[in-house]
Design a protein that fits this description.
With 312 residues, this protein is an alpha/beta fold. The protein contains nine helices and ten strands. The strands form two sheets. It has an eight-stranded parallel β-sheet, with helices on both faces. It has a two-stranded antiparallel ribbon with strand order 3-4. α1 crosses α9 and α8 packs parallel to α9. Bound molecules: zinc ion.
Length: 312
């Protein structure tokens, strides 16, 4: 029996036009490797629209957007943070990345697909309200949550961030949002330094899960089964958004956790099962980090394969 794909893959060639200087880890080849790894899979392939300016303004002030536009270079690069650069194509890429998660939310809540993966760059989870940082310009995951809450009228949305770095931007953007449960696991100590367990949001709705260096499956399971999953069940989200960074992989050059491809598959499958139990399987996942090209491609593929086989 042939059935329509339950998973959307949302991307845009503009995301390959965000060019970083030679040697920068967040590079064009990352997305090329991810897309190549996903080529054989049965997915509903969707071209990401540009986010509307009003979408961006749900999470960032107009002055921040104006400053990014002013800084955008006609050629070469503009450096806007210690490790965040704008090339001439970067803003369009960022608008496509934000547009991809908005489209993902629209498709999943509209019942067109059960879940969606936005294969985009620049990533988003380090971008704070009025500060670009850590390779990130717009807070894509927080935007997805706000779009689901404010545009679609949901009452409860959860964001789960398993990137190895703390989702400080998502935490900042949703700090005072009682309708959003934010769960983020990260190696600690590690850049950006935030993400302690006592950072819990204005309404106690943020759950930080710091993991010691070299953590592997046992620590992941303890953190997620012991803390994250019970919180998700208690919160009863109507949609789960995933900040899918794959830099907790043991081969990643920017961090020191010991996850492997099977760990990303396990965690994704658990989240899919929870989504089936809690919210009709509705998940919107967006690419964050992951800097070893082969590890990134394999882990991203395993993640999307679990989305494809997710229970309804
Ligand atoms: Zn990261």
């Amino acid at each position: 029996m042939t059935t329509a794909p339950i998973t959307a893959l949302i991307t845009h060639a503009d995301c390959l036009n965000h060019v970083t200087p030679e040697g920068h880890p967040e590079r064009v080849a990352r997305l090329e490797h991810v897309l190549h790894a996903l080529e054989p899979l049965e997915l509903k392939r969707v071209t990401a629209p540009m986010a509307a300016e009003d979408d961006i303004l749900r999470i960032h002030p107009a002055a921040y957007l104006a400053e990014l536009r002013r800084a955008s270079p006609a050629e070469g690069w503009a450096q806007i943070d210690g490790d965040t650069f704008l090339s001439p194509g970067s803003l369009d890429a960022a608008f496509r990345a934000a547009g991809a998660v908005v489209r993902g939310v629209d498709m999943v809540l509209g019942g067109e697909v059960q879940n969606a993966f936005a294969a985009v760059r620049p990533p988003g989870h380090h971008a704070e309200t009025d500060t670009a940082m850590g390779f990130c310009l717009f807070g894509n995951a927080a935007l997805a949550a706000k779009h689901a809450l404010d545009h679609h009228g949901l009452s409860r949305v959860a964001v789960v961030d398993f990137d190895v770095h703390h989702g400080n931007g998502t935490q900042d953007l949703l700090w005072d949002e009682p309708r959003a449960l934010v769960i983020t696991s990260q190696q600690m100590p590690l850049w950006p330094g935030s993400g302690r367990a006592d950072e819990d949001g204005a309404h106690g709705q943020i759950l930080n899960l710091p993991l010691p260096p070299e953590s592997g499956r046992a620590e992941i399971q303890a953190a997620y089964e012991g803390q994250a999953f019970p919180r998700l069940r208690a919160f009863r989200p109507e949609l789960i958004i995933i900040s899918a960074g794959f830099d907790a992989h043991q081969d990643d050059p920017l961090a020191n956790l010991n996850w492997n491809t099977a760990d990303f598959a396990w965690l994704t499958a658990q989240l899919c099962a929870l989504a089936a139990e809690l919210c009709g399987g509705r998940i919107v996942s967006t690419l964050e980090g992951g800097y070893d090209l082969n590890a990134l491609a394999a882990a991203a593929r395993a993640h999307v394969e679990e989305l494809i086989r997710a229970p309804a």
